[in-house]
UniProtKB/TrEMBL annotation:
This is Nitroreductase family deazaflavin-dependent oxidoreductase. GO terms for cellular component: plasma membrane. It catalyses: oxidized coenzyme F420-(gamma-L-Glu)(n) + a quinol + H(+) = reduced coenzyme F420-(gamma-L-Glu)(n) + a quinone. Gene3D superfamilies: Electron Transport, Fmn-binding Protein, Chain A.
Length: 133
């Protein structure tokens, strides 16, 4: 099973032939710019398409603090995305309170553990919408 750095490398080397399908889900690669370091960081994340956009969840397994990639995109919402061989620039935004319930249900249908993660923390776990620019 691919995970972490190895997952990113195999995904990039094979245009997602290895790494896109992961544990019954589908993953994309999200590249953010470090808000302090200025260095690019790439993370494999479970996603779902939503119209022309893509949805991801900033869960960090239900930790009380958000994942670093989420903090990075809050500071710099222009990100790079790779879905299989499709590489593009996107603008990341947190789903609004009105959008979130339907988008959350869609993501939980993909990865039911998101509900468990939300129960572990008082933090409102965001759904992030990635829109091509």
């Amino acid at each position: 099973m691919l995970y972490g750095k190895e997952h990113v490398e195999r995904y990039q080397e094979t245009d997602g032939a290895e790494g896109h399908d992961w544990q019954g889900t589908i993953t994309l690669l999200l590249t953010t710019t470090g808000r302090r370091s200025g260095q690019e960081r790439t993370t494999p994340l479970i996603y779902q398409p939503e119209g022309d956009a893509y949805l991801i969840v900033a869960s960090k397994g239900g930790a009380d603090e958000p994942p670093l990639w989420y903090r990075n995109l809050e500071a710099q919402p222009e990100v790079k995305v790779q879905v299989k061989g499709d590489k593009f620039t996107a603008r990341a935004r947190t789903a609004t309170a009105e959008e979130k319930p339907a988008l959350w249900r869609k993501m939980v249908a993909t990865w039911p553990q998101y509900d468990e993660y939300q129960q572990k923390t008082d933090r409102d776990i965001p759904v992030v919408v990635l829109e091509r620019v």
